[in-house]
Amino acid sequence: MSHQQRKDDHVAHAHALYRERRINDFDHLDFVHHSFPELDCVAISLATRTRAFAWPFPFYINGMTGGSAKTLEINRQLGEVAQATGLAIASGSQSAALKDPNVRASFSVLRERHPNGFVLGNVGAGVSPTQAEQAVEMLHADALQVHINAPQELVMPEGDREFGAWLDNIEAIRARVGVPVVVKEVGFGMSEETAFRLRERGVELVDVSGRGGTNFIAIENLRRSAQEYDYLEGWGQSAVVSLLEVSPHMGALDVLASGGVRHPLDVLKALALGARAVGVSGRVLHILLSEGPEVLIETLEAWKAQLRTLMAMVGATTVEELRHTDLLIRGPVREHCELRGIDPMTYARRARSARHGG
Amino acid sequence: MSHQQRKDDHVAHAHALYRERRINDFDHLDFVHHSFPELDCVAISLATRTRAFAWPFPFYINGMTGGSAKTLEINRQLGEVAQATGLAIASGSQSAALKDPNVRASFSVLRERHPNGFVLGNVGAGVSPTQAEQAVEMLHADALQVHINAPQELVMPEGDREFGAWLDNIEAIRARVGVPVVVKEVGFGMSEETAFRLRERGVELVDVSGRGGTNFIAIENLRRSAQEYDYLEGWGQSAVVSLLEVSPHMGALDVLASGGVRHPLDVLKALALGARAVGVSGRVLHILLSEGPEVLIETLEAWKAQLRTLMAMVGATTVEELRHTDLLIRGPVREHCELRGIDPMTYARRARSARHGG
Amino acid sequence: MSHQQRKDDHVAHAHALYRERRINDFDHLDFVHHSFPELDCVAISLATRTRAFAWPFPFYINGMTGGSAKTLEINRQLGEVAQATGLAIASGSQSAALKDPNVRASFSVLRERHPNGFVLGNVGAGVSPTQAEQAVEMLHADALQVHINAPQELVMPEGDREFGAWLDNIEAIRARVGVPVVVKEVGFGMSEETAFRLRERGVELVDVSGRGGTNFIAIENLRRSAQEYDYLEGWGQSAVVSLLEVSPHMGALDVLASGGVRHPLDVLKALALGARAVGVSGRVLHILLSEGPEVLIETLEAWKAQLRTLMAMVGATTVEELRHTDLLIRGPVREHCELRGIDPMTYARRARSARHGG
Amino acid sequence: MSHQQRKDDHVAHAHALYRERRINDFDHLDFVHHSFPELDCVAISLATRTRAFAWPFPFYINGMTGGSAKTLEINRQLGEVAQATGLAIASGSQSAALKDPNVRASFSVLRERHPNGFVLGNVGAGVSPTQAEQAVEMLHADALQVHINAPQELVMPEGDREFGAWLDNIEAIRARVGVPVVVKEVGFGMSEETAFRLRERGVELVDVSGRGGTNFIAIENLRRSAQEYDYLEGWGQSAVVSLLEVSPHMGALDVLASGGVRHPLDVLKALALGARAVGVSGRVLHILLSEGPEVLIETLEAWKAQLRTLMAMVGATTVEELRHTDLLIRGPVREHCELRGIDPMTYARRARSARHGG
Ligand SMILES: Cc1cc2nc3c(=O)[nH]c(=O)nc-3n(C[C@H](O)[C@H](O)[C@H](O)COP(=O)(O)O)c2cc1C
Ligand SMILES: Cc1cc2nc3c(=O)[nH]c(=O)nc-3n(C[C@H](O)[C@H](O)[C@H](O)COP(=O)(O)O)c2cc1C
Ligand SMILES: Cc1cc2nc3c(=O)[nH]c(=O)nc-3n(C[C@H](O)[C@H](O)[C@H](O)COP(=O)(O)O)c2cc1C
Ligand SMILES: Cc1cc2nc3c(=O)[nH]c(=O)nc-3n(C[C@H](O)[C@H](O)[C@H](O)COP(=O)(O)O)c2cc1C
Hints:
Chains A, B, C, D: It is found in: Cytoplasm. Four copies of one chain form a homotetramer. Chain A is of the alpha/beta class and 358 residues long. In chain A, 45% of the residues lie in helices and 12% in strands. In chain A, helix 8 (192-200) links the parallel strand 8 (181-184) and strand 9. The first copy, chain A, is globular and about 60 Å long. The model of chain A has no long low-confidence stretch (mean pLDDT 96). Chains in contact: A-B, A-D, B-C, C-D. Chains B and C meet through helix 12, helix 14 and helix 15 of B and helix 6, helix 8 and helix 13 of C. The complex binds flavin mononucleotide (FMN) (4 copies). One flavin mononucleotide (FMN) binds at residues 10-11, 14, 62-65, 92-93, 122, 145, 147, 184, 186-187, 209, 213-214, 258-261, 280-283, 285 of chain A.
C-alpha cells in the first residue's frame, strides 16, 4: 500500500467514523451557573497567549493531512479557511515530503494560501533534527508540532517499533529548529508522567490531544482486514482528563488541548481547565468534506461569536479569567481524579476561593 | 420579528417542549419513610409565610406571559384560575407594556380577574427604577419579581448584552418600589455565590427557578433557524441543587423555588429543602392550553388535597415542620453537594438529630 | 364500593401488577464467594427461632386476604398449602370480619385447613384491644400481626386519616392479647426511627415489609379513575434497606423481613442481614392464581431444598451462622447507608473479623 | 444420564452460551496511557515463571474436557494446537477415567499430541491422593490442577454434597503427587479468605478462575428442565476482583488467572494485576468448534504478537514489569475494593511511586 493511499485512507476513515454529537468526557464537566455575569459583552476579548506566541483567537485548526493529490486539495481549502478566519493552522505529518519532494506542494499549499498566518509544521518524534529543520523551512513554519503516537505506530503493520530514542530526539529537535516546538499527542491524551518527562527535557509547549474524537486505533483497524485491535478502541485519556493530569506542570508548560472538540462549549471547558488554546481536527474535516469551505468559514466565525456569548455566561472577559470559573467534574472523570490523586473539589470552588482569599 | 410574536412564540414553544413526567433532579431526592405519622390529618395546615407576606397555600402560579392578544386571553384565564383557587400569581415580564401602552391590558387583566388576590409584577434586571414603579402600579402589585436571565438574553439575537449594572440596578429598584422585591431566575437556578451577591445588596426574597422544566435555551433555539446553541440546553442547576446551594443564606434570605415542578411531591420536596413556597409555570400552562381553565382549577384543588396527604405521610402538620423531615440526596445531586462542599448527610438525619438534640 | 369488592380488587390488582423477576434492592446485595464451604450438607438445618416462637423453616406465607367469597376460596387453598408444607401463615386483615360476622369463615378457613400449624392473625393499628382479642380468637391464632400502613390509608379515598393514637393503641393491644404481637409494615419498609419508636413501646417483634414487590400505592392508584398518585409509587424503603436501618435494634427486637422476595436467594440475603424469618406474599399469590395449589406446594418444597443448597454455598449450617457471611452492599443501597450513617463495610468483612477476633 | 453425556452437554452448552465480546470486569479496568514507551519492541519478552515452572508465553489453554468419544476428538485437536503454539495446556477433570479405564484415551491424547509440552492433569478436590497420583501418571503430567467447584456440585443433581474434608484432602494430595499442584476454581473466583485457607495448607499455586466467561451455573441450569437456579447465575467474583482479593498473599502464592479472558488486552490486564500466567477456556473452545484448529492456531499466534504490541504500549519489556504499570480500577470493581478494604489508589500510581521511591 502506497504512502499516498494511506493518507487518503486516514481522511476517508476519519470522515466515515465521525459522529456529530458523540458523548465524551466534555459532557462530564459542567459549569456552575452564577446569575450575574458582572460584565458588558463589549469588554470580552478572545485573545490568548503562550510564552512562545500570541493569537487573536483561542482555537486553531489542528494537524491533519498532506502527501497525496487529494490531500493537497484539502490542504489548499484548509489554508484558505485559515486565511479567511485568521486562525492558526497546523500541517499534517510532513514525513512523506521529507522522503519524496513530489508531494511537498501538498503541504506548502497551506503557507501559500495563508501567507501571513500562523502555520505549524508537523513531524514524528523519530525524524532527525535535520529533517525537522527541513519541515520548518518547507512551510516557513512559525512553530513545529512533533507528534507522539506510539499506539498508532504499534497498531499499524508498517508502523515504527523503536521508541527508546524518542525523548532524546525531541530534545535534539528543539535544540536545532529555530521555532517553538509543540509536543503533541494524536488522540490518546497525556498523563502527569508524560508531562513530567517532557519538562525534564526542557519542553515548554504541549498539545495533549486526547481521546473522544478522532480515533486512530479505529481508523487503523478499518485499514486491517482482521480488525483485530477493536478491543483497543477505548485506549487513552480524554483532553479533559489530560488537562487535569498535566495541571501540576502548567507553571512550566504551556498546554494546548485537542481531541473530541465538538462545539464552542467544549472549547470553553478546555480553556477553563487551563488550556491556552484548543485544537480542532475531526469536526473541521467533517464540515469541509460534507459542506465545503464556505460553510466551514461561516461555522468558525459563528464559533467566535458563540465563544464570546459563553464567556459572558461565565463572567469572563479574558481567556485567563476562565481559569477562575467553577467547574463540576463528574462521574468517570471524577473517578479518574480520585484514583490518580487529583483533587476535583478545588475546581468547583474557584470563584468562592477568590472571594475569600484573592 | 415583533415583540408580540416573540411572546406568542415563547408560549407555543414552551407548550410544545413540555413533557409530563420528564425525569429531573426531584427524582434524585427521596424521603425516608417513617411508619408513624403521629398526627391526625385535620391538624394539617398548608399556610406559609416569608418576612414579607403570608399565603394560605405554599405554591403559586409563576410569571409567564402578556404582551399580545393571545397572551391577554391566557392571562385572563390564569387570573380567573388564581381567583378560583386563591393562589398567588405572578405576571410575565411587563417590559412590553412599559414601552407600548397598547398592550397594558394583557397584563392588568391579571389584577382585574384576581382583584383581592396576591399578584406579583415582573420586570427584567435592566429596567429603570421608575419603570419598575410603573410596573407595580400597572397591576397594583403586592410584590415585584425582578427576573435575572443572562443566558436567555445572550442566546436571543435581540437580547441584552450589558450585565455590568444589574446588581446596582436591583438595589435601586428595591429602594424605589414600595412593595417586596423577589429576585428571580428563569430556569437556570441559583448558586451560593449568587445568593451571596444578592444578600450583599440587601435582597431578602429570591426565587431560585432552576433547570429541569421549562428550558429557555431550548425555546430560543427553536426560534433560531440554525439552533446552534443546542449544546447549551443542559445549562444551569435545578431547583433542588439551587436550594442546597443557597441554604447557608436561608437565615437572611426567604427562598422561593420553582423550575421543573410536576406534581405535589415535587412541591413537598422543595418545601422540605427550605423553600417558603413553590412556583409552577410550565405545568400550569400545559394544563391550561391542553385541557382548559376548569381542569386547571380542579387540578390545583387536587394538589392542595394531595399536599395534605403527603404532609401526613412525612408527619408534618405545618410547612415549617417539613424542614425537619429526612431527605436522601442521591446520585448526581449528591455529587454536586460533595464537589461544592455541601453536606448531604445532615439532610438524611434531621428527625434523629431532633430526637437527640432538640 | 363494597368492602368485599375492595378485597377482590386488591387480589386482582396485586396479581396483575406482579412481575416475576423485577429488579429490586436484593439485586444490590452480593455474597462474597469463598471456595470452601467446610461443611457437609447433611448437617444443615433450616430451623429458626425468635424469643417468641420456633419454626422449622425460615420463611412463611405473609398476610394477604379474606373478607369475600373469592378470597375465602383463596384462603382455603393457602391454608392447605401451609398445612402441606408445614409453613407458618398469616391472615389478611380481619377488620371486615370484626364488623361483619358473615365473612368470618373467609378467615377462619385458614385455621380449619392448617389445624396444628402456626397461624398469625392480622389487624390494623387502629382497632381496639378488644377487637384485636377477637381477631386472635377467630383464628385461634398463635401470634397477631398489627399492620401499619399509613401511606396506603392516605391514598385510599375511604382510608384512615387519624394516626395520632396508633402507638398508644399498639401498646394497649400488646397488653391485652395473650399471644406475641408482630408489628408489620405492608410494603413501605421501616426506618431506624420506626424501630426506635416501637422499642420504646415494648414491641419485640417486627416485620419490616419493604418496597420492591407488591406495591399498595400502585394497587390503590389502579382503583382510582385519575390514578393521581402515580408519582408516589416509589415511596418507602426496601426490605434490604429496612434490615440495615433497624439493625442497631436487633438486640431488643426480633426482626422478620418481607417485601419483594422472589426466590430462595432473596430469603438467604434477608436472613444474612439478620432477619429471623422471611415472609412471601406476592409471589405466593401469583403462583397460586396462575398455576394452582399443587404447583405452589412443589415450589415451596423446592425452596426448602434450594435454601439448603444456598446455605452450603456460603458455608452455614444454621440460620444464625448466615449472620457471619460476607455481604457486599452496592450502589443505591450503599448510598442509603452512607447517607444515614450505616457502615456498609463491616458487612463485607464478617468472616475475616471472625478469623481475627472471634 | 451417563457420564459421557454430561461431558458432551458441558461442551455443547458452554459453546451455546458463549458470547464474543460480553462486557465483564476486565472492562472496568483501564491503563493510564503514558506517551513514551521508552523501549524498542525487539527487547520485549513474553516469558513468565512461577516458583514451580517457567513458560515461554504467559497464557495457556485451561482445563476443559475428556471422558467421551466427542471430547476425545476435541482433546486431540487441543493437544495439536498446544503443540503447534508451544502453549501449556490443562486437561479436563480426569475423574471419569479414574473410574472407567475405557475413557482414558480421551485424556491421554493430550500428552500424545503434545509430547514435550507442558501438560497439567485435573482432578476434583474430593479424589483420593492415590487417584490424584494416577491422574498425573495418566498424562505424564508436569503439574496437577485440583479444581474446587462447590457451587457447581451443589447445583448439579448428581453433584457432591460433602465439602468438610476438601482442605485436608488437598493437603494430602500435595504431599503425595510428585508434581506442582495448582488449586483452581472453575469460574466463581477466589476471595482473600480462600487464599488464606490455601496458604495455611501450604499451597503455593492457585488459579483464581473467576466469573464473567464460562458460567457453570448457567450450564447446569440448561441441563435441568426447571432451570430453577437461574437467580444464581451472577454468583462469584471475576478474575479481576479475585486478583485484587488475593493480592495480599501474592508473596506466598503464585497466582494464575482465568475466567472471561476474551483477547490479549484481558491477558495484559490480568498480568498487570499480578497473575503469573493467564488461562483461556471458553474462547479457545469457541474458536475450535466454530472455526477449527487451524484458525485457533493462527489466533493464538496473533495473540502472542498482539501481546508484544500491548506490552510496548505500556512500556514493559517483561511480564514482571507489567506489575508496575498504572491501572485505573473503576465502577463496581472499585466498589468491591472499598467494601473489602482493598486500596484501589495504589494501582493507579505505580509508575509515579517508582519515580519517587524506587
Ligand atoms: C485525517 C486526520 C489525519 C491526522 N493526521 C495527523 C498527523 O499527521 N499528525 C498529527 O500530529 N496529528 C494528526 N491527526 C490528529 C489530530 O491532529 C488530532 O490530534 C486528533 O484528530 C484529535 O482531535 P479531533 O478529535 O478534533 O479530531 C490527524 C487527524 C485526522 C482527523
Ligand atoms: C411561556 C413562559 C414564559 C415565561 N416568561 C417569563 C417572564 O416573562 N419572566 C420571568 O421571570 N419568567 C418567565 N418564565 C419563567 C418561569 O417563571 C419559570 O421561572 C420557569 O418557567 C421555570 O418553571 P417551570 O419549569 O415550572 O416552567 C416564563 C415561563 C414560560 C413557560
Ligand atoms: C393481595 C394482598 C393483600 C394484602 N393484604 C394485607 C393485609 O390485609 N394486611 C397486611 O398486613 N398486609 C397485607 N398485604 C401485604 C403483605 O403482607 C406484604 O407486606 C406485602 O405484600 C409485601 O410483600 P410481597 O412483596 O412479598 O408481596 C397484602 C398483600 C397482598 C399481595
Ligand atoms: C466445556 C468446559 C469444561 C470444563 N471442565 C472443567 C474441568 O473439568 N475442570 C476444571 O477445573 N475446569 C473446567 N472448566 C473450567 C475452565 O477451566 C475455566 O475455569 C472456566 O471455563 C473459566 O474460564 P473461561 O471463561 O475462559 O471459559 C471447563 C470449562 C469448559 C468451557
